[in-house]
Amino acid sequence: MLTGKSVLITGGTGSLGKALTNHILETYPGVKRLVIFSRDEQKQFNMAQEYPHDNFPQIRFFIGDVRDYDRVKRALKGIDYVIHAAAMKHVPIAEYNPMECVKTNILGAENIINACLETEVERVVALSTDKAAAPINLYGATKLASDKLFVAANNIKGWNPIRFSVVRYGNVMGSNGSVIPFFLNKKKEGVLPITDATMTRFNISLQGGVDMVMHALETAWGGEIFVPKIPSYKITDVAEAIGPECEQKVIGIRPGEKIHEEMITSSDSYYTYDLGRYYAIVPAIPRWSVEDFVKEFNAEKVPAGFQYNSGENTEWVSVQELRELIKEHVDETFSVC
Ligand SMILES: NC(=O)c1ccc[n+]([C@@H]2O[C@H](COP(=O)([O-])OP(=O)(O)OC[C@H]3O[C@@H](n4cnc5c(N)ncnc54)[C@H](OP(=O)(O)O)[C@@H]3O)[C@@H](O)[C@H]2O)c1
Fold this sequence. Notes:
The protein is α/β, with parallel strands linked by helices.
């Protein structure tokens, strides 16, 4: 799919951006150009060491800020596919610096959309989060606004064949700033802070996140929000898996945190289709026939009132499975007890 194509990843130096880079270079060595777009030169410098030009002549590093429309537009010249992963994603930091989060996550999204419409980009996939479903914190609210912008961008494209879609998922195992590296680090102190003993989260591997983005790039008709079917874990089980000998200290829920995360709300259920491996929330007013979509993907409408919630999931990751996943995906030095 990407052979001979030029791809740009905003936030290409982040957890997901790097996993996507790896995947694209391995799976599509014939990719024409792979542009990593982000702000921090040091992260780009470090990443460039991993991809020496002689071995990876396709990769380019482009310093830029998604808040800067002109820079975004310049970076998109000659690009066919865009994966928009750049974001501010830390809940407490967004609460404390709300306008910064609005500028990056909402105005940045708007810049990407406008610049894509002004260039020859064919497909855009934006990354969303479970926190965007019925959001209670600013990070989630900005990602919901971003999702709405990307979905609605399909309405203003006129005859431009470009397609915008969104992928929404939960906690990426071991990604920057997530609970597993946090507990692995805290383990030495003998105490693992738990915000609430009943808390649950969805769990997806980096590769699972990459697969979803590739699925959306390949199959989206425009305006879908793709949601993966993934298991949940209990936060106390993550603590048990990482530090069975550690005390679990309940410290109380943090501002803007939910006990359980949701990816599809009951209000979304009226527009949600089961595609087998994924769900798709289709736009309320799609530019294509939902009947044809159902036929093409053998899709089934979910029952009215359906919710996809980490606390009511039917699939769970056990303590032992968590240990194995952490060992496999996160920390090679972590020993399975
Ligand atoms: N990790 C998860 O558990 C998770 C779960 C659900 C959804 N997501 C979503 O997935 C996406 C990627 O997450 P991640 O975990 O890979 O994040 P990450 O590791 O924090 O990476 C974020 C990337 O965005 C870049 N960036 C931040 N602000 C920017 C700006 N204004 N302009 C250009 N680049 C900017 C960062 O580089 P610089 O700082 O150098 O600019 C970095 O490359 C985000 O949209 C996030 O909301 C993540």
